[in-house]
Amino acid sequence: MTDLFEAAGLTPETPSPLADRLRPTTLDEVVGQDHLLGPDGPIRRMAEAHRLASMILWGPPGTGKTTIARLLANEAGYQFQQLSAVFSGVADLKKAFETARGRRAAGQATLLFVDEIHRFNRAQQDGFLPFVEQGIVTLVGATTENPSFELNGALLSRCQVFVLKRLDDAALESLLDKAEAYEGRKLPLQPDARHALLALADGDGRYLLSLAETLFNIGAAEPLSIADLGRILQKRSPAYDKDREEHYNLISALHKSIRGSDPDASLYWLARMLAGGEDPLFIARRLVRAASEDIGEADPTSLILANAAKDAYDFLGSPEGELALAQLVVHLAAAPKSNAVYAAFGAAMRAAKETGSLMPPAHIRNAPTRLMKELGYGKGYAYDHNEDEGFSGQNYFPEGMERQSFYQPKGEGAEARVKERLDRWAKLRSERGG
């Protein structure tokens, strides 16, 4: 196997980043992934059995995907070969497969690690299939994107998908302890600044060690405060891809927090999306939808306010207009909830598709010509404003179709008064034979 230093154009004496110097040398040293690497973890069992299945490692940056693949090959006795989908093309894949075929003929198994595998197009992903099926390579792909969306179904069906977790504070703290032991000194941080450093890392172990290396290198004479830390280190933007899974996860979290009547959680998810650079008008569109779907007639003003908030943002822009969205989010989350109109419309659509072209009953058809009148169009129509209580109770469904009850008000908020009126009209309809 090519020496890793030589492959990178380095010598062992060349300075390397702290994260590389502290890279785990056994699976036991990998932190934060005990569900996969613990005594009963599936990857641990494969390594101990020296029989690896092709797999996809899906998780945020800095959680150990590359390290796990490399150690897995080492502990299972496989030859490790690495490609990056960012820098590799068809020629690189062919060369990798031919090399693996030669190793197999010599009795040596190959673990082919493909970083950022989701960046290969569909045809390139299909190119892996025969080599995986024949056992020429054991494929380990790494991705930060949801494999369900980004990888071919055929490739996914031949791989197990393992989800790596973002590193929690305990795992990140263990990395700092390891870095301090390696350096032989403590990080120059006050306790609250140390906690802030963990928050800055945002679950990314590699990024945390890069931050720690910067702090070691500055050689501060006194422990740094949070304010000092902020001046020295640049906070990176939260991980957020506006056209990928996180985009849909966060808008779903916002919508469901509103539906669950939690203004605080709703404001948090709104802030997360705005901090990540989401288009506020995309958020506004979903809020208009929530006003109709989840609040409806329980608070009919919500839809008006949703459109007003969208117009306010259009008028003011960022950041001033974002306050209108925050006000709307609080209103929607605190409003009474009813999906009765949403459910009723869905039921009505299904009935419309099932009943086809049934005509309205003759008495409510339009009769602008003499022929239509002679055919009975409009005959017997009762003008509701002239009836007792302004209600005739006539049938308005097609002839031959039984009366349906789509709209079932929940009795929340303003919908309670709607329910009272509908119940009264149902009683009158029954009495008047409508």
Distance between the termini: 86 Å
Low-pLDDT residue intervals, each spanning 5 or more residues = 1-10
User: Main β-sheet, in a few words?
Assistant: 5 strands, parallel
Helix content: 40-55%
Structural class: mainly alpha
Using only CA atoms, what is the Rg?
Answer: 32 Å
Could you explain the architecture of this structure?
52% of the residues lie in helices and 6% in strands. It is mainly alpha-helical. The protein has a 5-stranded parallel β-sheet, sandwiched between helices. Strand 2, helix 6 and strand 3 form a beta-alpha-beta unit. The radius of gyration is 32 Å and the shape is elongated. 29% of the residues are buried.
Quick structural gist:
The protein is mainly alpha-helical and 434 residues long.
Task: Please describe the structure with a list of short key phrases separated by commas or semicolons.
single chain; 434 residues; mainly alpha; five-stranded parallel β-sheet; 22 helices; 5 strands; disordered N terminus
Present the secondary structure layout:
Blueprint: H1 4-7, H2 18-21, H3 34-37, H4 42-49, E1 55-58, H5 65-76, E2 79-84, H6 90-105, E3 110-115, H7 122-126, H8 129-133, E4 138-143, H9 147-150, H10 153-156, E5 160-163, H11 169-183, H12 191-201, H13 205-218, H14 226-232, H15 245-259, H16 263-275, H17 280-295, H18 301-316, H19 322-334, H20 340-355, H21 370-374, H22 415-431
Helix pairs in contact: 4-5, 11-13, 12-13, 15-16, 15-17, 16-19, 17-18, 17-19, 18-19
